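Help! Submission page says 'invalid entity' but I think these are all valid:
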Amino acid sequence: MSGLDIDRMAERRGDANWLEQTYRDPETQILAMHRGRLLVAGEAAQVVRLDASQLPGKVDYCAFLGRLNNRMLFAASVAEPDVEPLASHSHGQFMAFRQAIPRLPAEDASLAAYARALDLWQRQHRFCGRCGSPAEADPAGFRRICTSGECGKEHFPRLDPAIITVVGHQGRCLLGRQPSWPPGRYSTLAGFVEPGESLEDAVRREVLEESGVRVASATYHSSQPWPFPSSLMVGFFAEAADAGIRRGEELEDVQWFEVDELERAVRARDILLPYRASVSYRLIADWMREQHGVDVAAWREKRS
Ligand SMILES: [Zn+2]
Protein backbone atom coordinates (compact mmCIF):
# COMPACT_ATOMS: atom_id res chain seq x y z
CA MET A 1 0.00 0.00 0.00
CA SER A 2 1.49 3.28 -1.05
CA GLY A 3 0.37 6.81 -1.68
CA LEU A 4 -2.61 6.84 -3.99
CA ASP A 5 -2.48 8.55 -7.39
CA ILE A 6 -5.56 10.61 -6.62
CA ASP A 7 -6.26 14.28 -7.26
CA ARG A 8 -7.54 15.38 -3.85
CA MET A 9 -8.93 18.65 -5.25
CA ALA A 10 -8.46 20.32 -1.90
CA GLU A 11 -9.39 23.66 -3.44
CA ARG A 12 -13.01 22.44 -3.71
CA ARG A 13 -13.40 21.49 -0.05
CA GLY A 14 -14.86 24.88 0.90
CA ASP A 15 -17.47 24.87 -1.90
CA ALA A 16 -20.58 23.35 -0.30
CA ASN A 17 -22.78 23.75 -3.38
CA TRP A 18 -20.29 22.07 -5.67
CA LEU A 19 -19.81 19.24 -3.18
CA GLU A 20 -23.57 18.66 -2.88
CA GLN A 21 -23.99 18.65 -6.66
CA THR A 22 -21.02 16.35 -7.16
CA TYR A 23 -22.22 13.93 -4.46
CA ARG A 24 -25.63 13.65 -6.26
CA ASP A 25 -24.04 13.16 -9.69
CA PRO A 26 -24.83 9.57 -10.82
CA GLU A 27 -21.25 9.24 -12.14
CA THR A 28 -19.82 9.86 -8.67
CA GLN A 29 -18.71 6.83 -6.69
CA ILE A 30 -19.35 6.59 -2.96
CA LEU A 31 -17.76 4.16 -0.50
CA ALA A 32 -20.00 3.17 2.41
CA MET A 33 -18.58 2.83 5.92
CA HIS A 34 -20.01 2.02 9.29
CA ARG A 35 -18.10 2.17 12.58
CA GLY A 36 -14.72 0.99 11.38
CA ARG A 37 -16.10 -1.25 8.65
CA LEU A 38 -16.19 -0.81 4.88
CA LEU A 39 -18.64 -2.14 2.31
CA VAL A 40 -16.74 -4.63 0.12
CA ALA A 41 -17.72 -7.33 -2.36
CA GLY A 42 -16.50 -10.86 -2.93
CA GLU A 43 -14.68 -11.32 0.41
CA ALA A 44 -12.84 -8.04 -0.19
CA ALA A 45 -11.97 -8.68 -3.85
CA GLN A 46 -13.03 -5.05 -4.33
CA VAL A 47 -14.52 -2.00 -2.64
CA VAL A 48 -18.21 -1.47 -3.46
CA ARG A 49 -18.82 1.85 -5.20
CA LEU A 50 -22.35 3.23 -4.93
CA ASP A 51 -24.06 6.33 -6.26
CA ALA A 52 -26.08 8.71 -4.10
CA SER A 53 -29.42 7.19 -5.17
CA GLN A 54 -28.38 3.86 -3.60
CA LEU A 55 -27.51 5.46 -0.27
CA PRO A 56 -29.90 6.68 2.42
CA GLY A 57 -30.83 10.38 2.16
CA LYS A 58 -29.17 11.09 5.48
CA VAL A 59 -25.68 9.84 6.33
CA ASP A 60 -23.64 10.53 9.49
CA TYR A 61 -20.97 12.39 7.55
CA CYS A 62 -19.20 12.36 4.20
CA ALA A 63 -15.68 12.87 3.06
CA PHE A 64 -14.78 14.08 -0.40
CA LEU A 65 -11.78 11.93 -1.34
CA GLY A 66 -11.04 13.49 -4.73
CA ARG A 67 -10.87 12.39 -8.37
CA LEU A 68 -9.46 9.00 -9.30
CA ASN A 69 -9.54 7.51 -12.81
CA ASN A 70 -11.78 10.41 -13.86
CA ARG A 71 -14.42 9.68 -11.23
CA MET A 72 -15.27 11.78 -8.21
CA LEU A 73 -15.06 9.77 -5.03
CA PHE A 74 -16.70 10.19 -1.65
CA ALA A 75 -16.81 8.08 1.48
CA ALA A 76 -20.01 8.17 3.53
CA SER A 77 -20.64 6.85 7.01
CA VAL A 78 -24.09 5.26 7.21
CA ALA A 79 -26.22 4.79 10.32
CA GLU A 80 -27.00 1.40 11.86
CA PRO A 81 -30.50 0.86 10.35
CA ASP A 82 -29.06 1.27 6.85
CA VAL A 83 -26.21 -1.20 7.20
CA GLU A 84 -28.00 -4.49 6.49
CA PRO A 85 -30.19 -3.19 3.64
CA LEU A 86 -27.14 -1.65 1.92
CA ALA A 87 -25.10 -4.83 2.25
CA SER A 88 -27.81 -7.10 0.86
CA HIS A 89 -28.83 -4.69 -1.89
CA SER A 90 -25.24 -4.39 -3.15
CA HIS A 91 -24.43 -8.10 -2.58
CA GLY A 92 -21.56 -6.96 -0.40
CA GLN A 93 -20.63 -7.06 3.24
CA PHE A 94 -19.37 -4.57 5.79
CA MET A 95 -15.92 -5.84 6.72
CA ALA A 96 -13.52 -4.39 9.31
CA PHE A 97 -10.95 -2.20 7.55
CA ARG A 98 -8.15 -4.13 9.25
CA GLN A 99 -9.41 -7.36 7.74
CA ALA A 100 -10.32 -5.91 4.33
CA ILE A 101 -7.23 -3.83 3.51
CA PRO A 102 -4.71 -6.70 3.25
CA ARG A 103 -7.08 -8.59 0.92
CA LEU A 104 -7.99 -5.77 -1.43
CA PRO A 105 -6.11 -5.09 -4.68
CA ALA A 106 -3.49 -2.34 -4.30
CA GLU A 107 -5.49 0.66 -5.49
CA ASP A 108 -8.59 -0.26 -3.50
CA ALA A 109 -6.43 -0.99 -0.44
CA SER A 110 -4.89 2.49 -0.62
CA LEU A 111 -8.31 4.04 -1.12
CA ALA A 112 -9.69 2.09 1.85
CA ALA A 113 -6.75 3.22 4.00
CA TYR A 114 -7.40 6.83 3.05
CA ALA A 115 -11.13 6.54 3.87
CA ARG A 116 -10.40 4.66 7.08
CA ALA A 117 -8.06 7.37 8.41
CA LEU A 118 -10.73 10.04 7.87
CA ASP A 119 -13.47 7.82 9.32
CA LEU A 120 -11.50 7.12 12.48
CA TRP A 121 -10.65 10.78 12.95
CA GLN A 122 -14.32 11.79 12.50
CA ARG A 123 -15.53 9.22 15.00
CA GLN A 124 -12.94 10.09 17.63
CA HIS A 125 -13.29 13.87 17.41
CA ARG A 126 -16.99 14.43 17.97
CA PHE A 127 -16.21 17.00 20.67
CA CYS A 128 -13.99 20.04 20.66
CA GLY A 129 -10.68 19.34 22.37
CA ARG A 130 -10.45 22.94 23.59
CA CYS A 131 -13.87 23.53 25.20
CA GLY A 132 -15.66 20.16 25.12
CA SER A 133 -18.66 21.34 23.05
CA PRO A 134 -19.87 19.14 20.17
CA ALA A 135 -17.92 19.63 16.95
CA GLU A 136 -19.58 19.30 13.54
CA ALA A 137 -18.09 17.91 10.35
CA ASP A 138 -18.00 20.27 7.40
CA PRO A 139 -19.33 18.98 4.05
CA ALA A 140 -15.93 17.90 2.66
CA GLY A 141 -15.10 15.88 5.78
CA PHE A 142 -11.64 17.35 6.33
CA ARG A 143 -12.55 19.73 9.13
CA ARG A 144 -14.68 19.68 12.25
CA ILE A 145 -15.85 22.95 13.70
CA CYS A 146 -16.70 23.56 17.35
CA THR A 147 -20.39 24.50 17.69
CA SER A 148 -19.79 26.84 20.63
CA GLY A 149 -20.12 30.44 19.46
CA GLU A 150 -17.49 31.53 21.96
CA CYS A 151 -14.95 28.93 20.81
CA GLY A 152 -15.56 27.96 17.18
CA LYS A 153 -12.21 26.20 16.94
CA GLU A 154 -11.50 24.32 13.73
CA HIS A 155 -10.10 20.81 14.04
CA PHE A 156 -8.21 19.01 11.26
CA PRO A 157 -7.35 15.33 10.70
CA ARG A 158 -4.43 14.12 12.81
CA LEU A 159 -1.56 11.88 11.82
CA ASP A 160 0.86 10.05 14.08
CA PRO A 161 4.35 9.85 12.57
CA ALA A 162 6.14 6.57 13.17
CA ILE A 163 9.55 5.43 12.02
CA ILE A 164 10.29 2.02 10.56
CA THR A 165 13.79 0.88 9.78
CA VAL A 166 15.91 -1.92 8.46
CA VAL A 167 19.17 -1.86 10.39
CA GLY A 168 22.30 -3.28 8.76
CA HIS A 169 25.69 -4.23 10.17
CA GLN A 170 28.50 -5.87 8.22
CA GLY A 171 26.11 -7.30 5.65
CA ARG A 172 23.59 -8.63 8.13
CA CYS A 173 20.18 -7.14 8.87
CA LEU A 174 18.35 -6.81 12.15
CA LEU A 175 14.77 -8.14 12.26
CA GLY A 176 12.47 -8.81 15.16
CA ARG A 177 9.06 -10.23 15.97
CA GLN A 178 6.21 -9.22 18.24
CA PRO A 179 4.51 -11.92 20.32
CA SER A 180 1.11 -11.21 18.67
CA TRP A 181 2.34 -11.95 15.12
CA PRO A 182 1.73 -15.22 13.25
CA PRO A 183 4.42 -17.84 13.99
CA GLY A 184 7.62 -17.21 12.04
CA ARG A 185 6.84 -13.62 11.05
CA TYR A 186 9.87 -11.31 11.31
CA SER A 187 9.95 -7.67 10.36
CA THR A 188 11.77 -4.37 10.59
CA LEU A 189 11.77 -2.39 13.85
CA ALA A 190 9.27 0.44 14.20
CA GLY A 191 7.77 2.87 16.67
CA PHE A 192 6.04 6.19 17.13
CA VAL A 193 7.92 9.46 17.08
CA GLU A 194 7.74 11.21 20.46
CA PRO A 195 7.25 14.93 21.11
CA GLY A 196 10.53 16.81 20.81
CA GLU A 197 12.22 14.17 18.64
CA SER A 198 13.46 14.33 15.07
CA LEU A 199 12.78 11.28 12.89
CA GLU A 200 16.47 10.31 13.17
CA ASP A 201 16.27 10.59 16.98
CA ALA A 202 13.27 8.27 16.93
CA VAL A 203 15.16 5.71 14.81
CA ARG A 204 18.07 5.71 17.29
CA ARG A 205 15.80 5.48 20.34
CA GLU A 206 13.45 2.79 19.00
CA VAL A 207 16.26 0.55 17.78
CA LEU A 208 18.08 0.93 21.10
CA GLU A 209 14.90 0.27 23.13
CA GLU A 210 13.82 -2.77 21.16
CA SER A 211 17.18 -4.40 20.45
CA GLY A 212 19.90 -2.66 22.47
CA VAL A 213 21.69 -1.93 19.17
CA ARG A 214 23.23 1.54 18.79
CA VAL A 215 22.51 3.21 15.45
CA ALA A 216 25.41 5.08 13.84
CA SER A 217 23.49 6.61 10.92
CA ALA A 218 19.99 6.65 9.46
CA THR A 219 18.98 7.63 5.93
CA TYR A 220 15.44 8.32 4.75
CA HIS A 221 14.12 5.71 2.31
CA SER A 222 10.35 6.15 1.69
CA SER A 223 7.06 6.60 3.49
CA GLN A 224 3.63 5.04 3.60
CA PRO A 225 0.28 6.08 5.07
CA TRP A 226 -0.79 3.40 7.50
CA PRO A 227 -4.31 3.61 8.87
CA PHE A 228 -3.87 1.52 12.04
CA PRO A 229 -4.65 3.76 13.77
CA SER A 230 -3.66 6.84 11.72
CA SER A 231 0.06 6.74 11.16
CA LEU A 232 2.46 7.95 8.60
CA MET A 233 5.23 5.35 8.49
CA VAL A 234 8.57 6.95 7.62
CA GLY A 235 11.01 4.31 6.40
CA PHE A 236 14.79 4.46 7.01
CA PHE A 237 17.89 2.47 6.22
CA ALA A 238 20.06 2.52 9.34
CA GLU A 239 23.61 1.36 10.01
CA ALA A 240 24.46 -0.06 13.42
CA ALA A 241 27.55 1.07 15.34
CA ASP A 242 28.00 -2.45 16.72
CA ALA A 243 26.18 -5.77 16.76
CA GLY A 244 25.51 -6.32 20.48
CA ILE A 245 21.86 -7.22 21.11
CA ARG A 246 20.04 -6.62 24.36
CA ARG A 247 16.37 -7.30 23.62
CA GLY A 248 13.74 -4.91 25.03
CA GLU A 249 10.34 -5.89 26.42
CA GLU A 250 8.29 -5.16 23.31
CA LEU A 251 9.71 -7.90 21.10
CA GLU A 252 9.64 -11.65 21.55
CA ASP A 253 12.80 -12.07 19.52
CA VAL A 254 15.28 -9.91 17.63
CA GLN A 255 18.21 -11.26 15.62
CA TRP A 256 20.86 -10.45 13.06
CA PHE A 257 20.24 -12.38 9.86
CA GLU A 258 22.85 -13.32 7.29
CA VAL A 259 21.33 -13.04 3.83
CA ASP A 260 21.83 -16.73 2.94
CA GLU A 261 20.41 -17.85 6.25
CA LEU A 262 17.33 -15.64 5.83
CA GLU A 263 16.80 -16.86 2.27
CA ARG A 264 16.91 -20.51 3.38
CA ALA A 265 14.48 -19.86 6.22
CA VAL A 266 12.04 -17.94 4.02
CA ARG A 267 12.12 -20.64 1.32
CA ALA A 268 11.56 -23.33 3.93
CA ARG A 269 8.67 -21.27 5.33
CA ASP A 270 10.37 -21.17 8.74
CA ILE A 271 10.35 -17.40 8.48
CA LEU A 272 7.62 -15.26 7.00
CA LEU A 273 8.45 -11.80 5.71
CA PRO A 274 5.93 -8.97 6.18
CA TYR A 275 2.80 -8.51 4.10
CA ARG A 276 3.88 -7.61 0.60
CA ALA A 277 2.22 -4.22 0.25
CA SER A 278 3.73 -2.98 3.52
CA VAL A 279 6.54 -0.49 3.82
CA SER A 280 8.46 -3.03 5.93
CA TYR A 281 8.49 -5.53 3.05
CA ARG A 282 9.63 -2.82 0.66
CA LEU A 283 12.41 -1.75 3.03
CA ILE A 284 13.69 -5.32 3.35
CA ALA A 285 13.39 -6.00 -0.39
CA ASP A 286 15.14 -2.76 -1.38
CA TRP A 287 17.87 -3.22 1.23
CA MET A 288 18.57 -6.76 -0.01
CA ARG A 289 18.70 -5.59 -3.61
CA GLU A 290 20.89 -2.56 -2.92
CA GLN A 291 23.25 -4.19 -0.43
CA HIS A 292 23.48 -7.70 -1.83
CA GLY A 293 21.90 -7.68 -5.32
CA VAL A 294 19.34 -10.19 -4.07
CA ASP A 295 15.72 -10.38 -5.27
CA VAL A 296 13.59 -11.22 -2.24
CA ALA A 297 10.45 -11.73 -4.35
CA ALA A 298 12.12 -14.76 -5.95
CA TRP A 299 12.44 -16.46 -2.56
CA ARG A 300 8.72 -17.02 -2.50
CA GLU A 301 8.50 -18.53 -5.96
CA LYS A 302 11.13 -21.27 -5.97
CA ARG A 303 10.59 -23.23 -2.84
CA SER A 304 13.07 -25.91 -1.97
ZN1 LIG B 1 -14.67 24.52 21.29
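Support: the input was valid. A stray whitespace character was the problem, and the output above is from the cleaned input. The mean pLDDT is 93.
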